[in-house]
Specification:
The chain has one domain. Helix content is 55%, strand content 5%. The chain has helices spanning 21-30, 35-44, 77-103, 116-130, 156-180, 184-195, 202-223, 230-249, 265-274, 286-301, 314-330; strands at residues 52-55, 65-67, 72-76, 150-151, 154-155. Strand 4 (150-151) and strand 5 form a beta hairpin. The structure holds zinc ion (ZN).
Length: 335
């Protein structure tokens, strides 16, 4: 007897972010003039395979990863949906909840979430946070890649689509760097040792952290160099900050901020900003304010909200959050 054919309902339906999958792949291949040529060399050398595996299974959040056995970078659609939602929320809350009120003199030291556009952005953010525990459908009434949201002439869906595409490409380049630099040759034996119950040494831990930093640098340089025009510095720079903010927000509980094998996610976020030549005050101070907002939302989502008080610059504001993160990390009774 032949096995019954699977019913259509068994195939996971697409989430709205699938619309942008081709954009992500094109950005990954053509981010810079040399990107495609490098990719072809890596394929010829047998270091990577042609394909990126776009995993459509509907599971809880799983960050992109490199699979050394197939030479593929594996991307989960649920993570991509999460990344889009986080990018939208950070952008809209920063711009509409903070910058616009500041310019028009309405900012009262706190974000007014009774504004519908902000309430919506916050709802989308908390839906994304829920994906850390279990998959749930994208709420039909909230912003999504194919649903326009225009506020006073700014098309936030369009801007988010662009930021998301660069942020996703950045995360793919990070995993790709692990493959092309043969990091697995170093990481594999250390992980195997630990899997057999042995403790990894301080030196080994440092090596693992260095490889992560190397992959971050590689990913940044695949998207952005200092000679790029200002507009590119701003948009791709912000996308890189958002990618790191999403990594931070994906940490399931505060104790997860302390990382053994990776540099701590908050350190990676601030290191990424310093590498991007942010402005103290100016267009590129958005790197600081968006990162600060991500820290604030992380603390709120974990019941650890703090009052920062007014800060002179975005950098100073982020420093206050990082000091708070250090306090959280050094606490012995972390949830
Ligand atoms: Zn990595």
């Amino acid at each position: 007897m032949r096995a019954p054919r699977p019913k259509l309902a068994d195939t996971p339906a697409e989430t709205p972010v699938r619309l942008l999958a081709p954009n992500v792949l094109v950005r990954f291949q053509h981010a810079r003039e040399h990107t495609l040529a490098r990719h072809e060399r890596s394929i010829l050398a047998g270091k990577v395979s042609q394909a990126i595996r776009w995993d459509t299974s509907r599971e809880a959040l799983k960050s992109p990863s490199a699979d050394p056995s197939t030479g593929q970078v594996v991307v989960s659609e649920v993570f991509m949906a999460y990344l889009w939602a986080v990018a939208y929320a950070l952008l809209v809350i920063d711009q509409e909840g903070y910058r616009r009120p500041l310019i028009t003199g309405r900012y009262a030291g706190e974000i007014d979430f009774t504004e519908p556009v902000l309430a919506e952005a916050r709802d989308l953010f908390f839906w994304a946070m829920g994906l850390r525990r279990a998959f749930s459908d994208w709420p039909a009434h909230l912003p999504a890649p194919g649903r326009a949201r225009v506020v006073e002439g700014v098309d936030y869906t369009g801007v988010t689509n662009g930021l998301f595409t660069d942020a996703a490409a950045y995360l793919l380049f990070h995993e790709y760097a692990h493959l092309v630099h043969d990091h697995w040759n170093v990481v594999g034996p250390i992980r195997a040792k630990r899997a057999h119950g042995a403790r990894i040494t301080g030196e080994e831990r440092e090596i693992l952290k260095q490889l992560e930093t190397e992959a971050d640098v590689d990913a940044r340089e695949a998207l952005l160099v200092s000679e790029d025009p200002d507009g590119v510095q701003l948009s791709r720079g912000l996308a890189i900050v958002i990618a790191h903010a999403a990594a931070l927000l994906a940490v399931a509980r505060p104790s997860g901020l302390r990382q053994d094998e990776h540099p701590d996610v908050d350190s990676r976020l601030v290191n990424a900003i310093y590498a991007l030549t942010p402005d103290e005050v100016g267009q590129r101070d958005v790197f600081w304010t968006v990162a600060s907002l991500a820290c604030d939302l992380f603390l709120q989502a974990n019941g650890l909200g703090m009052q920062t008080g007014p800060a002179e610059t975005g950098e100073e504001l982020l420093r206050r959050y990082l000091a708070e993160f250090d306090r959280v990390k050094s606490s012995k009774v972390l949830p």
